[in-house]
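The data layer described in this paper is built around a simple, fixed record for each protein. Because each token names a local backbone shape, the row as a whole describes the fold. We quote a single record here, exactly as it is kept in our systems:

***
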Amino acid sequence: MNGAASLVRTLLASGVDTCFANPGTSEMHFVAALDQIPGMRCVLGLQENVVTGMADGYWRIAGKPACTLLHCGPGLANGLANLHDARRAGSGIVNIVGDQATWHRPFDPPLTADTEGWARGVSAWVRTSARAQDVGRDAAAAVQAARSANGGIATLVLPSDASWDEGGVVAEALPAPAAAAPDGVAVENAARVLRSGRPVLLLLAGAAVQPEGQALAWRAAQATGAALMADYVNAQVARGRGRLQLERVPYVADLAMAALAKYEHIVLVNARPPVNFFAYPGKPSTQYAPHAQLHVLSRPEQDALAALRALGDALGAKPAPIPDPGPRPDAASGAPTPEKLAQTVAALMPEHAIVSDESVSYGRGFYRHTHAAPAHDWLHLAGGAIGQGLPLATGAAIAAGGQRRVISLQADGSAMYTLQALWTQARERLPCTTILLNNRSYNILVGEYKAVGAMPGETARRMLDLGDPALDWVQLAGGMGVEAARATSMEQCAQLMARSFGQDGPFLIELVV
């Protein structure tokens, strides 16, 4: 058995059965092993940032890691942006990155790179397998690292000779690390703060914004009068009927500071302290009031559910029913607006849909108009590196086995980073509906330009404008094999959404906004 065969068999034994790939010459023995050994679903992406983004979306829905197959250091470099987002989202991924044969590397061939060095910026675990005998052992350790409680990016660098040499050994699966238990002192401190009668916010992230975590947080809030809010950068939020009508901390610095100004205490439940995405002249970095005190109930790597249970018990809180959000809205009509689009999505989305949201500036207020939608999962851009939405949706659809409709709320500028994901959606016949928000600009940067105290002149406007020439998303999608149509009104958008939800494969709606 060669090293590549031991790698595939070890990954399968460790529960990794999906590989998102963009291979090259140094990975051909791994490709051959994937061809010869049954059990691994292989999904081709046409650019490595699509590959890594798909693996992120897969983790968020499947709750287990997939592996990626990337071609040498430059291939890894192409995928770094979405690995950054995956790391910030707490997603688990096993990267398999090819490399020069150990005896060929000293000759410095063109693709030689500091692959380990590039990987460390986005990885919690990095290793190079120098011998075929080590590949299986290292692969098992990589999967274990990826399955850590808060997710982990594990990168295994595989020189060609470690793949093709004989002597590979299949390794047994290693146990997944358990989430760290909550700190009893932290629980008691949070209970004391909640009993104080002062304005308190429970800021939720991770497992705390999933259904069980929401119910436990609501129990504590109802017993004490505390407010609940979701961290802005949550990777995944359970939403719709039967879930809390949570709002996120706003993105815009002034709005976030206004939303948090009244709280004297903020209890963090797997959340980080709320800070601005960027620095702005004359504004603080933190979004909470200067006098506010922060209290950590659970860190991201700790068990948020156990912490919330312990908090409820310490408070003597009783279970409380989740409030009904009211009737499901009707589809909107007229000219497109963010509010109307959110209302129409809530009116028409199928049960248990998945929303991949990279609407950036257009969709900041979508939450309050979609609380009455059917139960669904909402996936967010957690790391700020744009180009994640389409690959994330693609990986999520694969994780769901084609049984759940995935709706992409996608800005036009960020879609251009990874539009190749549409090709994979077409090839795999995935139930993905993309609502492409075409405002022909990097609209978020228009706002950011003003936020730093500048007004765009002609040169700046041209750097933020996407309308000269205009991008034709119907033709772009068609060229990738995805059926597409353009909508200029909410009536047209609603008709196209309903049509797409009745189809098995992908569909793109270019909504001119």
About this structure: The domain at 338-512 is CATH 3.40.50.970 (Rossmann fold). DSSP finds 20 helices and 17 strands in the chain. The chain has a mean pLDDT of 95.
